[in-house]
Every structure is written in structure tokens, then in C-alpha cells.
Design a protein that fits this description.
The protein contains 20 helices and twelve strands. It is α/β, with parallel strands linked by helices. The two termini are about 35 Å apart. Helix 1 packs parallel to helix 3. The radius of gyration is 23 Å and the shape is globular. The protein folds into two domains: about 200 residues, Periplasmic binding protein-like II (D-Maltodextrin-Binding Protein, domain 2), CATH 3.40.190.10; about 160 residues, D-Maltodextrin-Binding Protein, domain 2 (3-Layer(aba) Sandwich).
Length: about 475
């Protein structure tokens, strides 16, 4: 059985890796693009993550980068430090399991084997934030003034129970609804984002358009999970209260909608990330739209729109009938999806360098704006994003010239992290899996609930009961 990080903490040697919560006053230290020489810096900076997203941001935008190994396993900095990348994919909790084991051995590890930085996601952020394995960024020298232009929610999600900020991120991930212009024209008579938004402004209207789309031969959504985050981000309370899992009424609203859509043929019965779901986003897809956050539009949706896979020579061109055929609107409810946070591992022997990386890659307005200009990702700097939102010349060719940053900037202001908790990843995954057989008519709703209860108790033995809404 996988141990939680709190279990790991209880097993760690007494006195291991505790840091005081003393904030550092004053203004920000001028970035050097490399570690300040304190005589204590290690020769190797060990970074743990689950994919190469942060690695690419680091290699492309951190000022201290000198060269990158051909296989990308290491990056050499101008001060001679070697950045070693340890990438363990997320599937099957693989990343967290291996990270937990390494953190347990952190104190006894050789200096150049110690983890210096590790990355976390929103769904399990509090597991690591509320532990002794992450450092208060103030103790690194990152000040409130340094982070003043970040979106507040990106700081709230990595605050521990004492209010200390234990991580920082270069991205914000508000969500929108990405729809096919050509399908919207056929169903609604317009592809104008403002008018489409009027038609999809709440769930009642959204369901009405789903029926209209079906009558025209289209699917409103691809599969069971597409709208899930929009519901789960608008719950009234956290998943867990004490030792009880409390299923929010809004989660059951998602269940009801998905059952309706499946029974009425409003979706294609796909699941997130499977081949059918990806194909529905391409030139031959007949799906009205997809709920996507920032990364999803400029990476996943755009990638899935290729005529053939890029590694097989596929190109995304106007001529394939889909480039420029997507647009975005706010959708029925504000939400966020995903995000990656940089944490300093307690025990790092490269604290100054870690601070400098955080300062440059999450607080530098110029760098944040350049990342968005280059990649169209949405970055965690309010002035940079608002300047692009107001720029009449900025737009996405993939979205038919639309300035999607303007919509993201408004959506970001509405993100509420007050109900986030350490059990979010497991609860979100298990509830989606448990109800798929119900949607397909293989089991009834009571059996689906029973399957969820069994799955969640297996993953989190400390949770003793599941409460369902009346």
C-alpha cells in the first residue's frame, strides 16, 4: 500500500529537515541568472518532475543556462552547476511513489544526490505543502514583493496550514470552452464568441444547445469526463471532512448530466486522453467543443488537430480544414484545470540557485510575457497578461485570430481555491472511473456509488466513510 507523505514524515528521523518560518524582508534581490556564491552551493542541482514541460521552460528561458545535453538528461549552467533531470511519468501514481521514497531518504543522501527542486500538481499539492519536505519560499529569500504580480490563487494552493507559501509557478490555468466555429455556425447560426457565450451562459442553456447539436448530427461533448472539471471546481466544500469523504451535490450534477448525454447520444462515449477523444478534436471530428484550460488549448487541442501525428510528418495548416476553426468562450461556469508548481526540497544544498530559478521563471514580467508570446501559454504575471489582453494586434492563428488571453485574463480573476484539499487527485480520478459502467447501462447508480466507496477506501485507508448528498 502506498504511504502518504504524512506517513513518510512520521517515519523520518527526529529533527530531520525542519526550517523556521522566518520571512525575509526588503525588496527582491537582483537576479544573476545563476547561484550566488555562498560557499555552500552543490555542484549538482537535482530536479524531479513527471514530464518535460518545466524542463523545456527552464532550458529555453532561465538566463543561467549554458548548454543542454543532446539527450536532455542534464543542463549545464554558466556557473558550472549541472542540472540533473529525473523524470518519472505520472501513470499509476508512479511519480509520487518514487518521489516519496526519495524524500524519505533525503537526509541521508549524498550532497549531490539530494533533491533540490521537485514539481507538484494542484490535485495533490497539499500533500507535499503540508509536510516538512517543502521549504517556505520566504526562507529562500523570495519575498511578497517579488511575487506581488502573481495570481493569488496560485499562491493559495501552495499555502500550508500555517499560511506559509511552499511553492511557486510560472503558469496560471483558467479554463474556457473551445468550440468549432463551423459547427457553431451550423447549430447556432453564428461563430462569434460573444454570441456563442450567450447561448452557453449556464448549464440549462448548454444542455439546450446539446440537443440542438444532436439534431444537426453533432455531439456536444466527446465523452464522459469532458465537463467534469467545470463541475468539480465549483463545489461547496472540500472532498474530505475529518475521515469522511463528502460527495458534493455539484459532483452529482455532473453525474446526472453525463448520464443524460450518454443516453441521448449527446456524447461519443470516450474518455479523456484515449484515441477516440483525441480524434474527436481533429479534422474529422463532429464534436461541438471541449473544456480546456490554458495548456490544453495551445498544446493538447492544437496537437490533436494535426491531420497525422507530427512524428509522421503531420502539419497543422489552414488547408486541413481545422486550423482557425476553433474559438473560445467562457462557458457556463468559471473553472481551472491543472498547473505545475516548483517546490524547494528541504535539505537542498543549492538554496540560492533555487531562489534565483523561482525569481526568474515565476516572477520576472519580461520572461513571463515572452513565454506567452512564444508558446501562447498563459503565464503567472498579471501585468504581462493584461498587456497582451489589451493588445489589438495579439491573437492566435489557431483560434482564427482571436485574442484568447483576454478571456483567460477575465477567467483567472474568478478562480476560487478555497475548497482544494490533499485528497483531490484520488477522489477526482476514482469518481470518474466508478461511474463509467453506470453511464453505459452496465450497472445502476447504487452500484456505481458502492464501487467508488470501495476504490476510495482502498486508496486512502484512513478515510472511513463516504457521504452522498440527499
Amino acid at each position: 500500500m502506498r504511504k502518504s507523505i504524512k506517513s513518510l514524515v512520521s517515519l523520518a528521523l527526529a529533527g530531520a529537515m525542519a526550517f523556521s518560518m522566518v520571512g525575509c524582508g526588503g525588496g527582491s534581490t537582483e537576479s544573476t541568472g545563476a547561484a550566488q556564491d555562498t560557499g555552500e552551493s552543490g555542484k549538482v542541482l537535482n530536479v524531479w518532475c513527471w514530464n518535460d514541460e518545466f524542463q523545456s521552460r527552464f532550458n529555453d528561458y532561465y538566463p543561467g543556462v549554458k548548454e543542454v545535453a543532446e539527450d536532455k538528461s542534464t543542463t549545464t549552467l554558466t556557473d558550472g552547476t549541472t542540472v540533473k533531470w529525473t523524470i518519472n511519468p505520472n501513470e499509476g501514481n508512479n511519480y509520487q511513489d518514487k518521489l516519496d521514497e526519495a524524500l524519505l531518504n533525503q537526509e541521508s543522501a549524498a550532497a549531490d544526490d539530494k533533491i533540490d527542486i521537485f514539481l507538484i500538481e494542484a490535485d495533490y499539492a497539499l500533500k507535499y505543502v503540508d509536510s516538512d519536505y517543502t521549504m517556505n519560499v520566504n526562507d529562500l529569500g523570495l519575498t511578497e514583493d517579488d511575487m506581488k504580480d502573481q495570481y493569488k490563487y496560485t499562491q493559495d494552493i501552495v499555502k500550508d496550514s500555517n499560511g506559509a507559501i511552499k511553492g511557486t509557478t510560472w503558469q496560471a490555468t483558467p479554463g474556457l470552452f473551445a468550440y468549432r466555429r463551423s459547427i457553431a455556425k451550423d447549430v447556432l447560426g453564428t461563430d462569434d464568441p460573444e454570441k456563442v457565450q450567450e447561448a452557453l451562459a449556464d448549464w440549462t442553456k448548454f444542455d439546450e444547445v446539446a440537443k440542438q447539436a444532436h439534431d444537426k448530427g453533432y455531439k456536444m461533448l466527446s465523452g464522459y469526463d469532458d465537463s467534469y472539471r467545470t463541475f468539480s471546481n465549483n463545489v461547496s466544500a472540500p472532498w474530505v471532512d475529518g475521515t469522511s469523504v463528502v460527495v458534493d451535490k455539484n459532483i452529482m450534477n455532473w453525474v446526472d448530466q453525463t448520464k443524460l448525454y450518454t443516453d441521448n447520444g449527446y456524447n461519443n462515449k470516450t474518455s479523456l486522453w484515449d484515441d477516440g477523444w483525441a480524434a474527436d478534436q481533429g479534422p474529422k471530428g463532429k464534436v461541438f467543443g471541449f473544456f480546456y484550460s490554458t495548456w490544453g488549448i495551445n498544446f493538447t487541442l492544437l496537437g490533436n488537430s494535426l491531420e497525422t501525428p507530427e512524428e509522421e510528418g503531420g502539419k497543422l495548416e489552414v488547408g486541413n480544414g481545422i486550423y482557425g476553426d476553433y474559438a473560445v468562450c467562457e462557458g457556463p461556469q468559471p473553472y481551472y484545470w491543472g498547473g505545475t508548481w516548483i517546490c524547494a526540497a528541504t535539505g537542498t544544498d543549492n538554496a540560492d540557485l533555487v531562489k534565483d530559478i523561482m525569481l526568474n521563471l515565476t516572477c520576472n514580467e519580461e520572461i513571463m510575457k515572452q513565454i506567452t508570446l512564444d508558446t501562447q501559454d498563459y503565464t503567472n504575471n498579471i501585468p504581462a497578461m493584461e498587456s497582451l489582453a489589451a493588445d489589438p494586434d495579439f491573437g492566435s492563428d489557431f483560434l482564427g485570430g482571436q485574442n484568447h488571453i483576454a478571456l483567460f485574463a477575465e477567467a483567472a480573476k474568478k478562480i476560487d481555491m478555497s475548497n482544494a484539499g490533499p485528497y483531490d487527485q484520488g477522489c477526482n480520478e476514482k469518481i470518474q472511473n466508478a461511474f463509467k459502467d453506470y453511464y453505459d447501462g452496465n450497472i445502476d447508480e447504487d452500484k456505481a456509488k458502492e464501487n467508488f466507496e470501495t476504490a476510495i477506501k482502498e486508496q486512502y485507508p484512513e478515510l472511513t466513510e463516504v457521504k452522498w448528498p440527499e
